[in-house]
Write a structure and sequence with these properties.
Distance between the termini: 61 Å
Structural class: alpha+beta
Largest sheet: 3 strands, antiparallel
Bound molecules: zinc ion
Number of helices: 6
Strand order of the largest sheet: 6-3-10
Length: 193
């Protein structure tokens, strides 16, 4: 049976978020979509539009989550969690989020797209003075650094242009010294203005 048919059966031919019966299509729940029914939800065009274009979100449409939040299907729970999180400034969605129970795996999946994270929650890279570093910045080394795996010392005062930040590690950045891309600890650099 195709995914669509399986989903039609699971959902009783209704949008799994708002119960609409028209313009239903399979929606792949990312990340880690494996092409299985377990990673898919059947949703209507209205829901899809709003999920894909957060600027068009109609807050009241999502009152439907009041019902769909009780779905036993993890992929549906993930979508409900993400939308409620997107609407967390609304009192009612905050209330629903508090009632919504997701097991640990489902919650990690729901959070995997970074929905609901504010800039403050994200990994911050700070230089030796505590100044915020951004990709593309130029930094200066504040001490001589022995570069592991390469046969040179990056000298204090060397400017490293166009750095990139190591996404999941606030203490590391990458940049080119002597033509080689190396990892540098943020505590050993100073941002140049
Ligand atoms: Zn819908």
């Amino acid at each position: 049976m195709s995914i669509e048919n399986t989903l039609l059966e699971r959902s009783e031919s209704k949008c799994e978020l708002c119960s609409a019966v028209e313009n239903l299509a399979v929606y792949e729940v990312q990340p880690g979509y494996t092409g299985s029914v377990d990673d898919s939800v059947l949703i209507c065009e209205t829901c899809r539009n709003q999920i894909e274009n957060p600027d068009n979100i109609e807050v009241n449409h999502w009152r439907c989550l009041n019902d769909s939040m009780w779905s036993q299907v993890p992929a549906v729970q993930v979508m409900v969690w993400r939308i409620l999180t997107r609407l967390k400034n609304e009192g009612w969605s905050q209330d629903l989020l508090e009632m919504l129970y997701l097991d640990d795996n489902t919650l990690s999946w729901a959070q995997a797209t970074g929905e609901g994270e504010t800039a403050e929650d994200k990994v911050k890279h700070l230089d030796s003075n505590g100044a915020l570093l951004e990709a593309g910045d130029t930094v200066t080394l504040i001490k001589d650094l022995n570069v592991k795996g390469a046969n040179f010392t990056a000298k204090r005062g060397t400017a490293v242009r166009g750095i990139s930040l190591v996404a999941d590690n606030a203490e590391q950045l990458e940049g080119k010294v002597n033509g080689q891309q190396i990892v540098i600890l943020t505590k050993f650099v100073k941002r140049s203005n």
